[in-house]
Amino acid sequence: MTESDVTRRTVTVGLPNGLHMVPCSGIAKLAAKSASTVRIVGNNVTADAKSVLDLLQLKAECGAELIVEAEGEDAAAAVESIVRLFETNFDPDGDRPESANTDTALP
Amino acid sequence: MIVKRGIAVSHGVAIGPALVLGTESFQIPSRFVRVNAVESEIVRFRCALENVCREISTNEQLASQQIGEKYGAIFGAHLQLARDPKLIGEVESLIRTRHYSPEFAASQVLRRYAKELQNLGNHYFAERAADLFDLERSMLRHLLGEQREEVANLAEDVVVLAHDLTPSETATLDRKHVRGFVTEVGGSTSHTAILAGAFEIPAVVGVGHFLADVSGGDIVIIDGNHGEIVIAPDDETLERYRDSAERSRSLAQRLLSRGSRISKTKDRVRIEVFGNIEFPEEAEHCLERGADGIGLYRTEFLYLTTFSQRSEDDHYRAYRQVVETMGDRPVVIRTLDLGADKIPGAAVRAYKQRGNPELGLRSIRLSLDNLSLFKTQLRAVLRAATTGDVRVMFPMISSLMELRQAKMILRDVTEDLEDEGVDYRGDLPVGIMVEVPAVAMMAEEFAREVDFFSIGTNDLIQYTLAADRSDPAVAKYYNAADPAILRIVRRIVQAAVQADLPVTVCGQMSSDPKFVPLLVGMGLRQLSTTPLAIPEVKEVVRSLTIPQAEEILGRALEFELARDVEVFLRGELKKICPDLVE
Fold it and tell me: Residue A63: which domain range?
């Protein structure tokens, strides 16, 4: 496989509690839909993005920089969808379920 | 013979064989499988996994519908975990290459990952190890086919021992055969305590680790009067406890026979004694004991017994049953007080993910955050109120804004029912639980906007003394006899009396006979207690005069330490009702 088949993007964790169970499962859910191999790299760990257990091993805390990479036919789309998760802080509708302060989560 | 001490939360003595619930580890019957059984064992693993996933999906749906999307997401994460390709691959490879049994393999893999999480050095991640242990448990449960059915269909009387009782577990308990509870954790107002009160059986909680010292079937004595349990007692001890159980039964009988008489003090002042109930059928128990009404109808149980969708008609039927049982007597229905220590079994983890659940999204806050849940309940209350004397009460109000919001929703619901032409009553009295210190400070202002106060001492104590009521480590800081509690309760009562507003105490404080003279002395003319305590509380009232009660209050307020207040009150009770003090 050549370098051109690999799509890479850098993301930053913005979640106050880091990349814990719920966001990891969000990533794994998206990655599982993709036909490509999807990995997240950071902290000297390379995690299979389809595995929640692997992703947890990244122990990515708030502010950590991670690389999302994928190789395969829909690599670009897979990376794009995962990057979007990070960009929206895992919060598709503006409701921030995992924010540390419950009050701010209330409408 | 082993004696352990805990916190006595429901009095009486129970003796019976132990039923040990929820031990953390399942017995794995065999660690290896025959080589030629490997393929069928893998199929068995996949079936079990499929069932685990199905169970989690159901919980996810229910949690999303009933508590909100954010809680559903927790189960979504569990589902993703159960389907983790790495996890499944490793388990199957252990079965295939090392001939591990699926139980052993799953346990090994999950525990290894849990350990790795614990070693990550980040507190927040380390806590997630609990999710893996949880998954291990449900995997083993499905593999072993164990559904805890033994709890629902008991053949003989047992005493139930557990680390903690979750609401969903206790809901399936066969009430006929459960004689008492003992839990390793929990405080005097924990769910177990409330439940034991409702079942009217002895309970000791906060015992600490003891489950390792007991096997199922061992004879265990639960001494709910002194907060002790005796595992495998010797004959002499057993005899002594049988005698004492007999004595307390006859005292209860004697009090009960006088129970139906109206409770007036010796100087003819009427003190109404209401019952606190959880299940609709308890209304009957209250009547038998001569209750003047239901002062607190906790409605959570509709949700805690099962985590399935509850319709407006489910609520309505439960409320009607209570209203019909009580006839013209008042029935105070408290809206949902879910959250913190009272949460639907399947959602426990979702709440526990929050750092400080007692200060979090619970009770009225949860209702205001989930309007459909709240409105469903309010509609049912208004519909059930067409006959009888139904009153509605909002729990854990902390500001006037919140109260006004809740009242506005109530008005909305009233209008909806009016528009729909449904039979309802719209003008029922609206009250609040006074259990947040902020409300005690603003009691005069609140008194202008509600029809009654009900002092919820359980939460009021925990918030005033900053002691988590369910944490045995701080149990000693949680004390109803604390001078600060006496003052804050008195403050609330004074504000109500000045505003000519009905006020009652519905926390556990009023179920403890030694506090009754004190509370009457403060000016309370209504008390709401657990059904079991009604005869005792009435007995104290009948043996008391108002000046005597006022004097007891005055002297109790002179003490600086909770310990001194307690000793004093116990001494006074002994003078008034020697029978009630051991």
Answer: 16-90
